[in-house]
């Protein structure tokens, strides 16, 4: 499947998942230790409570001492009971605080990754599945931090405290508990390993299920049109059932670990009760049996289950751990994939050349080596070696518009930037470059149009220029920092579920309402929007409620016009437009291109006509 | 909530009773184990003292001993069975919920479906359904089983000490009900708020990620995060408050139980002092209290999620409450289509004058209109995806049958509609092509791919027709997606084909070639072609029927 990252083997995943969790837990250790401390003290008070009860019981039942005479024990008992409640409250306070902090920092880390990741890499994950990771899976880690982690320490401390107390009363009983204790972790590890492996599966299935639902619901309209409801309905039902089966497999194994504990607890209580009973009766005379009294016997019996209780809690929280590890290794997948497709990789392609643009201007060239057979140009006075290009059908240079641009820009040479392609090869796979290398210089005020048949890699080139894909070889040089230097309008423009105003403002934060209306006017949208809709307050959404595809396209373009970066990349800006509205776009682009380096991917002959430079990718790959 | 509880009882009735039975048995075994052991030790201690004092005493050691062993075993077995059984029920229930919800959704008309955006839909379907899984265990089985256990224990106790049974039973039941209602009233609102924030965050995140291409280029990714950060902040605050409330309710409950235990210890021991009950019974009482405490203690954390579940249930309820479309007449085939539209708000050409045209067998109608002229709305109206606005308009099928009266699934059986947007489902290429077709041969898939010039592309795909097309059609370019959608329409062999901008994203040469490849096939059908400009490749005959949506003012 292409939509989820490639999975590593399960064990490796769990291991790195644990490392991931540990890294984030490090900052919250003090809070978590406080929680453990509170929990340990609660155990001490628990011991106090039951020991004083056992003593009272012995005095009253056997020695007939009136309860009034045991007032001090009753007070101890009360302190134990109430103190425990308070300490447990403290424990949960610290643990929950730590969990909240950890989850917050994990979420921030993911946001940071997204911020620094190439959108092309980001697109490999469905937005729904990514959001699920950020929202639900991080939420699912709560149990691990607030319950499991403190409990795994308490599962050592509390039984030890109890064991010491029991040993004080009767060493044989302590040994009995001690023997059963090491067996428990052994069983738990065995069971836990199976559960973990299964849980890896669970986590992926869950994510896939979320993606499947988003996809089918988003396409429910199409499904209905195709009359495929029944088919998809069965698919959904089948998926739900598979989900249940996979999870049941995990659960059956996971529950075994708690059953092992349950079994030990029950057997320990039963055998202790019988041993103590027989000793008190006088049926057992060997060992320390004779020193047993009702006091010590009752105390042992009551606190023995508490020996196992922390472990039982731990196993109850075991699925918290499994869920957290699963989520963590999924996140790790996201974070490590991101590293390889980080925007930084861009710097390999791009080098910022701070050159003297004025002197370079004269040499302005569409240079072409022997490898760039595909480059032609019509005629030009300023190109240094026109002969180079005569046999290249691949790049076309149109001169008349260039002169206008030059005229406009020579007044203000400071704003003149140069984007240089040096033997640039692009594509998705290293040995499959989509064209022969491109050598070309673009200056502010020029427009490059890239055309070619569908699927030939026009968008890939655009993504390479935007720095979203690393170039296979060659470099792009730009004389400014790339940060914030570009505006990109993809083929399917991004429309927020919001008003037109907010849709414009999101990419053009400093534009005023007046400017917005002006740009909408330029694009021939103002009248349409103010007459039949609510102007800038018109609500639009993911499916573009209320507006046609062409209108949406123009709104997306309006954003670019409102906030022109030095380089503007447009993917099929006129695809959904009719001749009438195309005129608006053409004149808007003409106005825009005098200010920026404009790179447009299109089929539209009208756009090719106004281009200064034209690359036809088909002819390049044919040649 | 009610709807889901009803669905629960309807679908899981029998499993519900068995589930409760297992929980009760497990809980009773646990409490009995403690009670019996406490009683046994005390009794043997008394007997032991008596014997060492020289008193001859008959004491059956073996009955209580085997009782203890029995309860130890039944508790273990019961717990495992109960957990596996009930979790299976939960998952079955979720599956029932999921499927019934999907059924309801597919009842909605396409325009209703579009009211909600995708990100919210996903939230509703998965997160909300997940939240519903508490309904069975936490809110149904656990509380019912708890009450049964308390009642049974009180009954048992009433044979020993009637007044005590009344007091203890009353105390536990009262505390039980009180703690449930306090937990609910303290946490309901906050838990709902937290769910709302999580779902808002999810919608914001999806939007954020969809905008990455545009935001990243301008370095605005960080700025756009502001809303997410704000919501996250609010979420942290709400969750913090919620945690505090749950812990405080837990503290109050623990203190109540502690005080209860204290009083019981005092009363039981005092009664033993007065010889109202014997010593072993006093210990038994205390042990019983301990065992029951365990059942009550989990209430605050169990009911703390009620708000979250209620939030989910309410949102899901909104989805399912939509009225289904009334069933209509079904038709066998489409012979003719006659359209008269006036005053359709989304089609400006119908505002002032009557827009009227007809399509007959084996003919092509070209509708030309520029962006914003209502082409897509018209196509939606013709394909019954949207209904017409008013009474002045009419779409008649086969002469006299209004489109509105035709059953929409029967209508869609004979119609293929190429929408303006492409929709590629996450699935294989073959799956995407054959969707909704019962039997389709691989040969016919390939022949359609040849018509659309996709054959070479499909052949070089790693797994041919079985190649997975990404969720958003990531592997597919815009032009390829367009042609795949077109292929889907061709495969359906419709009577009527409506194409909204079929050549979007295709260059003129390829469009002309594909049109040429299709023309024989098209000639045998009723075709409505909606486009922003009249394509150059139409033959004169094909341009015979032409309607313009543009108003020339």
What's a quick, concise take on this entry?
The complex is a heterodimer of chains A (623) and B (553). Chain A is 62% helix and 9% strand. Chain A is an alpha/beta fold and 623 residues long.
Annotation keywords:
heterodimer, A: 623 residues, alpha/beta, six-stranded mixed beta sheet, four-stranded mixed beta sheet, 22 helices, elongated, disordered N terminus, B: alpha/beta, five-stranded parallel beta sheet
How would you sum up this structure, described in words?
The complex is a heterodimer of chains A (623) and B (553). Chain A has 623 residues and is α/β, with parallel strands linked by helices. Chain A has helices at 10-25, 29-62, 71-115, 119-122, 127-139, 142-169, 171-218, 220-225, 229-281, 294-316, 318-340, 346-349, 357-362, 400-410, 458-466, 500-505, 513-522, 526-532, 549-562, 579-593, 605-609, 617-622; strands at residues 350-352, 395-397, 418-425, 438-443, 447-451, 473-478, 486-489, 498-499, 539-540, 567-571, 597-601, 613-616. In chain A, the strands form 3 sheets. A 6-stranded mixed β-sheet of chain A has the order 2-12-5-11-10-7, with helices on both faces. A 4-stranded mixed β-sheet of chain A has the order 1-6-3-4. Chain A has a two-stranded antiparallel ribbon with strand order 8-9. Mean pLDDT of chain A is 77; it is low at 1-10, 344-348, 351-393 and 400-411. Helix content of chain B is 65%, strand content 8%. Chain B has 20 helices and 11 strands. In chain B, strands 6-9-10-3-11 form a 5-stranded parallel β-sheet, sandwiched between helices. Chain B has a 4-stranded antiparallel β-sheet with strand order 2-1-4-5, with no helix packed on it. A two-stranded antiparallel sheet of chain B has the order 7-8. In chain B, helix 6 (162-210) runs antiparallel to helix 9 (226-273), helix 6 crosses helix 12 (306-320) and helix 9 runs antiparallel to helix 10 (279-297). The radius of gyration of chain B is 35 Å and the shape is elongated.
């Amino acid at each position: 499947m292409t939509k989820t990252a490639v999975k590593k083997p399960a064990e490796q995943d769990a291991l790195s998942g644990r490392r991931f969790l540990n890294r984030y837990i490090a900052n919250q250790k003090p809070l978590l230790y406080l929680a453990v401390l509170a929990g340990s003290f609660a155990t001490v008070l628990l011991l106090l409570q039951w020991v004083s009860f056992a003593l009272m019981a012995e005095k009253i039942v056997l020695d007939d001492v009136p309860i009034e005479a045991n007032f001090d024990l009753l007070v101890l008992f009360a302190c134990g009971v109430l103190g425990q409640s308070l300490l447990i409250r403290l424990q949960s306070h610290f643990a929950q605080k730590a969990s909240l902090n950890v989850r917050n920092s994990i979420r921030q880390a993911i946001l940071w990754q997204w911020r620094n990741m190439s959108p092309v890499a980001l697109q490999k994950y469905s937005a729904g599945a990514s959001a699920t990771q950020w929202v639900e899976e991080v939420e699912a880690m709560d149990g691990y931090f607030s319950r499991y982690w403190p409990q795994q320490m308490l599962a050592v401390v509390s039984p030890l405290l109890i064991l010491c107390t029991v040993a004080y009363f009767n060493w044989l009983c302590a040994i009995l508990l001690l023997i059963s204790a090491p067996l428990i972790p052994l069983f738990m590890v065995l069971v836990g390993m199976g559960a973990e492996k299964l849980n890896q599966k669970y986590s992926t299935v869950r994510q896939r299920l979320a993606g499947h639902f988003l996809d089918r619901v988003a396409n429910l309209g199409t499904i209905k049109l195709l009359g495929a409801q029944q088919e998809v309905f069965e698919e959904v039902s089948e998926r739900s059932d598979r989900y249940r089966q996979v999870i049941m497999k995990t659960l059956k194994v996971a529950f075994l670990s708690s059953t092992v504990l349950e079994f030990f607890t029950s057997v320990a209580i039963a055998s202790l009760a019988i041993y103590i009973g027989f000793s008190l009766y006088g049926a057992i005379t060997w060992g320390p049996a004779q020193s047993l009294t009702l006091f010590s016997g009752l105390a042992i019996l009551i606190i023995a289950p508490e020996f196992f209780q922390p472990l039982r809690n731990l196993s109850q929280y075991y699925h918290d751990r499994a869920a957290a590890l699963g989520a963590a290794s999924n996140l790790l997948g996201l974070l490590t994939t991101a590293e390889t497709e980080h925007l930084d990789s861009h710097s390999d392609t791009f080098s910022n050349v701070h050159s003297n643009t004025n002197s370079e201007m004269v040499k302005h060239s569409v240079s072409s080596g022997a490898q760039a057979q595909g480059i032609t140009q019509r005629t030009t006075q300023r190109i240094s070696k026109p002969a180079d290009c005569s046999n290249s059908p691949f790049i076309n240079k149109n001169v008349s518009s260039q002169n206008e641009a030059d005229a406009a820009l020579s007044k203000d040479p400071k704003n003149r930037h140069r984007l240089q392609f040096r033997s640039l090869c692009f594509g998705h796979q290293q040995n499959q470059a989509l064209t022969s290398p491109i050598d070309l210089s673009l200056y502010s005020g020029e427009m490059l149009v890239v055309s070619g048949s569908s699927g030939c890699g026009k968008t890939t080139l655009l993504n390479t220029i935007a720095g979203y894909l690393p170039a296979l070889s060659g470099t792009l040089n730009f004389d400014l920092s790339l940060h914030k230097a570009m505006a990109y309008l993809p083929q399917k423009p991004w429309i927020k579920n919001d008003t037109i105003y907010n849709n414009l403002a999101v990419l053009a934060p400093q534009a005023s309402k007046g400017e917005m209306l002006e740009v909408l006017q330029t694009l021939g949208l103002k009248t349409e929007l103010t007459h039949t809709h609510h102007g800038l307050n018109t609500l639009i959404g993911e499916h573009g409620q209320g507006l046609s595809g062409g209108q949406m396209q123009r709104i997306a373009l309006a954003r670019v016009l409102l906030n022109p970066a030095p380089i503007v990349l447009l993917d099929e800006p006129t695809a959904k437009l009719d001749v009438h509205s195309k005129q608006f776009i053409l004149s808007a682009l003409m106005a825009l291109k005098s200010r920026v380096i404009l790179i447009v991917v299109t089929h539209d002959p009208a756009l090719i006509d106004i281009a200064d430079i034209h690359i036809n990718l088909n002819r390049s790959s044919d040649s | 909530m009610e709807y889901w509880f009803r669905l629960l009882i309807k679908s899981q009735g029998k499993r519900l009773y068995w589930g409760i039975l297992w929980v009760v048995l497990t809980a009773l075994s646990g409490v009995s184990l403690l009670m019996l052991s406490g009683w046994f030790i005390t009794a043997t201690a008394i007997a032991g003292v008596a014997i060492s004092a020289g008193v001859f005493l008959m004491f059956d050691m073996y009955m209580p001993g085997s009782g203890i062993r029995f309860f130890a075993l039944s508790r273990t077995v019961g717990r495992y069975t109960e957990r596996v059984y009930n979790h299976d029920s939960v998952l079955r229930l979720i599956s029932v919920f999921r499927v019934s919800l999907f059924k309801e959704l597919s009842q909605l008309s396409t325009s209703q479906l579009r009211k909600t955006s995708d990100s919210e839909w996903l939230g509703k379907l998965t997160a909300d359904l997940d939240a519903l899984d508490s309904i069975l265990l936490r809110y149904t089985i656990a509380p019912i089983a708890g009450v049964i256990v308390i009642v049974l224990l009180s009954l048992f106790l009433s044979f020993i000490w009637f007044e005590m049974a009344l007091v203890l039973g009353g105390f536990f039941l009262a505390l039980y009900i009180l703690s449930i209602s306090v937990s609910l009233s303290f946490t309901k609102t906050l838990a709902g708020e937290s769910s709302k924030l999580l779902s808002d965050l999810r919608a914001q995140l999806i939007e954020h990620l969809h905008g990455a291409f545009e935001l990243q280029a301008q370095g605005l990714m960080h700025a756009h995060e502001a809303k997410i950060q704000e919501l996250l902040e609010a979420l942290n605050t709400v969750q913090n408050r919620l945690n505090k409330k749950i812990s405080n309710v837990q503290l109050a409950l623990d203190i109540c139980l502690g005080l209860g235990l204290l009083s019981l210890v005092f009363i039981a021991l005092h009664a033993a002092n007065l010889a109202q009950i014997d010593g072993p019974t006093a210990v038994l009482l205390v042990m019983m209290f301990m065992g029951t405490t365990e059942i009550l203690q989990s209430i605050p954390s169990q009911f703390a999620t009620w708000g979250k579940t209620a939030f989910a249930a309410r949102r899901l309820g909104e989805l399912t409450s939509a009225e289904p479309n009334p069933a209509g007449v079904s038709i066998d085939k489409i012979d003719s289509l006659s359209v008269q539209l006036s005053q359709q708000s989304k089609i400006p050409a119908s505002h002032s004058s009557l827009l009227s045209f007809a399509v007959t067998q084996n003919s092509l109608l070209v509708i030309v209109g520029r962006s914003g002229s209502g082409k897509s709305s018209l196509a939606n109206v013709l394909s019954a995806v949207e209904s017409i606005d008013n009474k002045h308009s009419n779409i008649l099928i086969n002469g006299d049958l209004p489109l509105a009266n035709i059953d929409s699934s029967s209508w869609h059986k004979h119609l293929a509609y190429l929408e303006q947007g492409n929709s590629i489902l996450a699935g294989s290429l073959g799956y995407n092509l054959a969707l909704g077709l019962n039997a389709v041969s691989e040969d016919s898939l390939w022949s359609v791919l040849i018509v659309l010039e996709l054959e070479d592309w499909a052949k070089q795909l790693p797994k041919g027709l079985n190649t997975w097309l990404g969720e958003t059609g990531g592997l597919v370019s815009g032009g390829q997606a367009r042609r795949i959608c077109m292929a889907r329409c061709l495969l359906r062999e419709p009577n009527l084909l409506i194409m909204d901008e079929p050549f979007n994203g295709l260059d003129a040469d390829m469009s002309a070639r594909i049109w040429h490849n299709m023309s024989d096939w098209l000639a045998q059908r009723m075709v409505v072609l909606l486009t922003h400009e009249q394509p150059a490749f139409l033959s004169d005959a094909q341009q015979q029927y032409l309607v313009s949506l543009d108003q020339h003012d």
